[in-house]
Amino acid sequence: MAGFRALLLLALTLNVSFAVLGRRTKGDVGVCYGLVGDNLPSPKDVVSLYKRHNIRKMRIFEPYPEVLEALRGSNIDLTLGVKNTDIPTLASSEDAANSWFISNVHPYVNDIRITYISVGNEVIPGEFSDSILPAMQNLQNVLRSNNLGTRTTTVVHSAVLGTSFPPSAATFSDSARPFISGIIQFLSSQKSPLLVNLYPYFPYAADPENIRLDYAQFRTTEPLIKDGALRYSNLLDAMLDGFFSAMEKEGVNDVNIIISETGWPHDGNGNITTPGLAATYNRNFIHHVNDFEGTPKRPAALLEGFIFAMFDEDLKDPGVEQHWGLFSPNMQPNYNIFG
Ligand SMILES: *[C@@H]1O[C@H](CO)[C@@H](O)[C@H](O)[C@H]1NC(C)=O
């Protein structure tokens, strides 16, 4: 009974966390729903779990029909990924993009609000990089001719930056620039955001001697990093501003960033991956998005983002990769994000 009450309390506090976001028109925190596991609950149960905890945004990595079916009428905003291997097809012609749309998206458009379709995840600077822009353009034309407000974008990761520190010195790497430059001009012309996967955990884990844990976890009260006139008290803002600076160097200063993934593993790498640290990071991330303060460089930016991920995924690589879930596959929380 005590266990049940504790669980109920946990469920209620989680609920409150996302419910606070429900009052906002923008800037909510969503959760990525990855399916690289052989023990995950049914998509129907997962959608119920999102609703039970008032998580109002979901990002999925490809158009899984079962998930899309389960989302019908759920009122959960969806960011939908195009599989990386489908990008060249979408790039080949508007007809091909239309076929992809007819099979994967069109059956659901009356029942699911699809905010963004992201063409590829962490593709640049690898294979298919040069197909992203034409794929985005073809798909955007298809969406427009179907009178949908859905916007196309792509998901990049920190590796597209060459220099990343200090934030004002950040630039896209020579291998990424030829692709990303045209993409961000296109995003600017469409008033669409760039999606960026940003994990303060990784630089911290790579260099815990020099990067302070409280800086990586939004726990410092004073700014630690000075960059010209700007002061940084958390690593995520520094990483975000690196991206804003890099875009400015390409002549683009009006593209917002949505944090398409962030989070902290709760196991897999000794004492820097514990449920307590994961809870602290994710809880503070939610507060940071909710405080409407933007970043030092873009104080007016409306931050928006997704926690990675809903579940632990047992078919990922061993180590931290299997331990990012807010929930275990049995749908119990791995930790209390308000603890
Ligand atoms: C992990 O353990 C090492 C060695 O005892 C210690 O120096 C470090 O501060 C610990 N880190 C955390 C986050 O507890």
Question: How are the SSEs ordered, and which strands pair?
Answer:
Layout: H1 2-22, E1 29-32, H2 43-52, E2 57-60, H3 65-71, E3 77-82, H4 87-92, H5 94-104, E4 114-121, H6 129-145, E5 151-157, H7 177-190, E6 194-197, H8 201-206, H9 213-216, E7 225-227, E8 230-232, H10 235-249, E9 257-262, H11 275-290, E10 305-307
Parallel strand pairs: 1-2, 1-10, 2-3, 3-4, 4-5, 5-6, 6-9, 9-10
Antiparallel strand pairs: 7-8
Helix pairs in contact: 5-6, 6-7
2-acetamido-2-deoxy-beta-D-glucopyranose is lined by residues 213, 271-272.
GO molecular function: hydrolase activity, hydrolyzing O-glycosyl compounds
Organism: Chenopodium quinoa (Quinoa)
Keywords: Glycosidase, Hydrolase, Signal
Task: Give your account of this protein's structure.
The structure is a single chain. The chain is an alpha/beta fold and 339 residues long. The protein has a single domain, classed as Alpha-Beta Barrel (TIM Barrel). 37% of the residues lie in helices and 14% in strands. The strands form two sheets. The protein has an eight-stranded parallel barrel with strand order 1-2-3-4-5-6-9-10, surrounded by four helices. Helix 2 links the parallel strand 1 (29-32) and strand 2. Helix 6 (129-145) packs parallel to helix 7. The model is unreliable at 1-13 and 19-27 (pLDDT under 50). It binds 2-acetamido-2-deoxy-beta-D-glucopyranose. Residues 213, 271-272 line the site of 2-acetamido-2-deoxy-beta-D-glucopyranose.
